[in-house]
Amino acid sequence: MRGLGALIKRNTKLFFKDKGMFFTSLVTPLVLLVLYGTFLSNVYEDTFRGALEAAGATAPDELIGGCVGGELTSSLLAVCCVTVAFCSNLLMVQDKVNGTRKDLTISPVSKGTLALGYYISTMVSTLLISYVATGVCLLYIAKVGWYLTTEDVLRLLLDVFLLVLFGTALSSIINMFLTSQGQMSAVGTIVSAGYGFICGAYMPISQFSDGLQKVISFLPGTYGTSMLRNHVLRGTFEEMESQGFPSQVVEAIKDAVDCNLYFFDEKVGLNTMYLIMAGTAAGLIALYVLLNVVRSGKQR
Question: What is the pLDDT of residues 159-183, one digit of tens each?
Fold first, then answer.
């Protein structure tokens, strides 16, 4: 345990010492918030207003703002918890590029401990940045329309934690096969551009074709996005119902923004989503450690 603690401390200090890596990770969610607020807020607002008009209902601007702010926040956090993990985890690749990994592998520390050291330090860095982003998002929601309770905020923080566990494990498995700066840049670009689409952050999954929806329903990140949306929009939907909105209208909006997810026409409950995310994260962590041990054994 002492060796693991030393590795975590060493990796975390190096991450925050590398100003380029740290500020890139920190600025990413802030830039996304500006871009989302600038380009997607109008799209989301039109979507909500269109859904209400089709049902013959209207809503005050603050309620619409709460819907838009909740969807923007959930989309941003769903992407950042994974993409920031890839930025924070670059130290693993850098150690291989500059030869530091060889020095660490000949030390009296097991390969599994070395792998966990990278994972936990990356998780700590990513979690810190993700919680900062969450705080900024909550300030944005407070400005456009606040309908959250203390329980909603706590559940939102738990969702972010689970997504960071998942994103860190995913980035750890992928990054362990990278051996150059060019590969790091390529993977980072692909993940940043593509993950938001397949997890339903950029465009609700309900707007995809039926076949694509069924394919995406097998991806755990989809359920992470839905968890965030359910908790950040719960108060907004409750306010709609208290203002007399028909339950069919509220359910239709939940379907449209992926608060309700379906696995082959079977609705997936929130508890099931938690099990999927927690189980996937645990499985990926175990796979990551196992791959490190196996690969290190073959290199002897």
Answer: 999 999 999 999 889 888 877 767 7
- 111's tokens: 């390969």
- 144, exposed or middle or buried, with CB in 10 Å at 0-12, 13-18, 19+? buried
Structure tokens at 190: 């692909």
Torsion of CA 205, 196, 270, 172, to 10 degrees: 140
pTM here? 0.88
Range of the domain at 48: 2-298
CA dihedral (225, 226, 228, 229) positive or negative:
positive
| Domains held by the chain: number | 1
Residues 251, 252, 256, 257, CA torsion sign: negative
